[in-house]
Amino acid sequence: MRVYVYDGSFEGLLTVFHGLFRDKAQPLAIHRRGVAAQGFLAETVEVEADPAKADTLYEAMERRMTPRAVRLLYLAHLSEERDGEMRLFAFVCRGGQLGERLLDDLGDPGVAVVMRMANRVERERERFLGLVRFREAGTFFYAPIEPACRLLPLLGDHFARRFPSMKWMIHDVGRKEALVYDEEEWYLTPCDLPGVTDFGPREEHYQHLWRTYFAVAAVENRKNPERQRNRMPKKTWKWLVEIPRGKREPGA
Amino acid sequence: MTFAASVEEFEGTEEAMTVFMTLSEKLAVLAGAAKYDVSCSSSGSSRKNAGGTGNAGPAGICHSWTEDGRCVSLLKVLLSNECVYDCAYCVNRSSNDVPRSHFTPEEMAELTMQFYKRNYIEGLFLSSAVHRTPDYTMEMMLRTITLLRREHRFSGYIHAKVIPGASLELASRLGALADRVSVNIELPSEESLRFLAPQKSKHSVLAPMSHLSESIREAAASGKGSSRSLLFAPAGQSTQLIVGATGESDFRILRLSEGLYRRYSLKRVYYSAYVPVSDDRRLPALAAPPLLREHRLYQADWLLRFYGFHPEELLDETNPQLDAAVDPKVAWALRNLHLFPLEVNTASYEMLLRVPGIGVTSAKRILTARKVRRLEEEHLRRLGVVLKRGRFFLLCNGRSLAQPVGDPVRLRNLLCDRTKERTALRNEMRRRQLLLFSPAEMPV
After folding, report:
1. Which chain B positions have a beta carbon within 8 Å of A206's beta carbon?
2. How far is residue B11's CA from residue B18's CA, in Å, rounded to a whole number?
3. pLDDT digits over A33-85, tens only?
4. Which of residues 101-120 of B touch A (CB under 8 A)?
5. Most buried of the four, A9, B87, B108, B388, by CB within 10 Å?
6. In sequence order, which ranges of A49-170 are alpha helices (DSSP H)?
7. Phi-psi sector, B348: left (phi>0), alpha (psi -120 to 50), beta
């Protein structure tokens, strides 16, 4: 058995799967390039993403397992969980057996675990639809975020529909990737900027107003910081305009 | 007075009468005055972007959570807190000595746009104190919302409050621009209204509510089958009741809510634990807002809306208050032990919903999963079904999930929401103790 290394993209992963099915092979591990390799005695195969192979498998899966199951697979992949790829592979194999009934078998451990991964991504996406904070920076609006899952591909449509006549950019600081919208369409691009923090007096003015609102809107005799942290974990505070600067770093 | 002339006066003379405040100070006053309104939902509308800024999604989005743990979805402010009414329970009553201010419609619209573009909010929740007259107040609100929709081409979510006593024509114009409208009942009976809010009446609340529900129904019907439906408050209407300021029982409150859902097709009834904002002798001296009671009422309200329960199944005249120690569904199940245990693999959806701990999601998952295989306990757990309470009421493939407890009293003890009860009690004790100290003696 071998260890397969790919570029981290969904296309890359499907290329790996494609090869495994063709060779009727069972992998020892599959992981993204750059993630610490395990089993250093095993043979390692570097797989380059191949759009044609990925498409073939994609369509075959849609026919065999339903488009909803493939969508779920895609979402689960964006969780970037450690060793998640092996679970995704098992999921597709089970899909080969169960076909269209795959997603009905909620009692199957392999199906349940992939659903949980996908749910985690969807929940974080929903949370970030609210938690993205744009800063007005000259001619465009800039928002740094640091989500646990790779959310950028899932945010483009929402913000393009909402702000079609603005130029904006959402920056996944941790993954060094940006989602850019140029008033016509959105695209993903590598982005190695440090998170920008100074935006001039006009932006400062509205940030101050928002902090004022945030502080005043809480009802004193209903204080419930536990519930607040539950809904809005401290790890998300770093880039939130409404949290006073001293409290934004985790643990501060 | 014409509309244009009234706006001019609003911006001229009125401005001179109030003390000058910066925008930030105004925001603090007018958001502080609006925060006791509990509604925050931005759901139910799918207004599309119309070339300008914004849209609304059916699910609604929370943008932040304040220190009280409540979600911030809409910018919730009063256009003015300068009130001619003197409702005893309200922080903005005319006899209360608090700073007063108002936004001009232009300021309000601009602030909303700037917040929205930064993704701070889903939209605006606009309410107001009764500034001069109900009609005058509504005209100012309409001016604000018209600016947003027409000048700023804003397609985000707008929730607008209808001022009791304003003309129905103005309420209609508001509904044509907003996503959701609401008229607050505030007090759950006519006697209480007469007692604490003498300038309001049952009629001044119910007349606009019924008028709006007609218009919403018509608009929704006009949309069926045609590509362009008439937009009139597409997210429907809601209302709010204050709990604990007056003596109505939970039974009476739930019956009122059910009536409102049925007669006026309200989307939501919100319950707001009375926060002591006044030492008026007509009001109870509460050490803290009755939050646990509010919580139980919300649970019961969900049972009415999504679980097919009727108020009469939960409470009756001899037993009119919800049990503080167990949630209303557990209380119902304990009175109906003869219906249990229920076999997971064959029970109907309706009955599954009545099992304590099983909600809409779990019930639907069970229905899906049992098509593929007979369900055992391990499968239930994998589906994410919470069995903490449910295990006493379920059978899996003929096997029970817990030692049977024959005695309802012992079973009730096992199902008690001990932590919730303890927390509520502890918080209340702490507040009482604080009240015993005068501020000078308070340990810092």
Report:
1. 114-115, 118
2. 11
3. 887 666 667 788 999 999 999 999 999 999 999 999 999 999 999 999 988 99
4. 111, 114-115, 117-120
5. B108
6. 51-65, 67-78, 84-98, 109-131, 152-162
7. beta
CA distance B151 to B407: 67
| Residue A157 forms contact with B (CB below 8 Å) | no
Is the predicted pLDDT of residue A114 greater than 90, yes or no?
yes
- Are the C-beta atoms of residues B67 and B174 closer than 8 Å to each other? no
Q: How far apart are CA A116 and CA A88, in angstroms?
A: 12
Distance CA A31, CA A12 (A): 11
Would you call A227 and B375 a contact, using CB atoms and an 8 Å cutoff? no
Residue B129's pLDDT band, with cuts at 50, 70 and 90, is very high
Closest partner residue to A228 among B65, B373, B379, by Cβ? B65
pLDDT digits (tens, 9 = 90+) for A13-43: 999 999 999 999 999 999 998 876 666 677 8
Residue B113 near residue B154 (C-beta atoms within 8 A): yes
pTM: 0.88
Residue A125 · residue A151 · CB < 8 Å = yes
- Look up residue A175 and give its two tokens: 């993954």
Return d(Cα B250, Cα B267) in angstroms, integer.
Answer: 20
Helix (H, G, I), strand (E, B) or coil at A31: strand
| Number of residues assigned to chain B | 444
Please give the radius of gyration of chain A, using alpha carbons only, rounded to the nearest integer: 21
B361 min Cα distance to partner chain A (Å)? 13
Contacts of A241 in chain B (CB under 8 A): 118, 120
Lookup: tokens for A76 = 């689960």
According to DSSP, residue B186 is labeled B
d(CA B109, CA B140): 12
B54 and A162: CB-CB below 8 Å?
yes
CA dist., res. B216 & res. A4, Å (int): 58
Query: Which residues fall within 8 angstroms of residue B72, CB to CB, at 6 or more apart?
Result: A214, A217, B40, B62, B63, B64, B65, B66, B121
One-letter amino acid of B92:
N
Phi-psi region of A66 (alpha: psi -120 to 50; beta: other; left: phi over 0): left
Could you give the CA distance from residue B108 to residue B398 in angstroms, rounded to a whole number?
Answer: 63
What is the distance between the alpha carbons of residues A110 and A114, in angstroms, rounded to a whole number? 7
Cβ atoms of B50 and B177 within 8 Å: the answer is no
Per the CB < 8 A criterion, the answer to whether A107 and B369 are in contact is: yes
Task: List, in sequence order, every beta strand (DSSP E) within B175-228.
Answer: 180-182
Query: For testing the chain A interface, which of B21, B25, B38, B68 should be mutated: the one with the most A CBs within 10 Å?
Result: B68
Residues linked to residue A177 through DSSP beta bridges, in sequence order? A172, A190
* β partners of residue A186: A181
Alpha carbon distance B257, B241 (integer Å)? 9
Instruction: List all residues 6 or more positions away from A192 whose beta carbon is below 8 Å from its beta carbon.
Output: A176
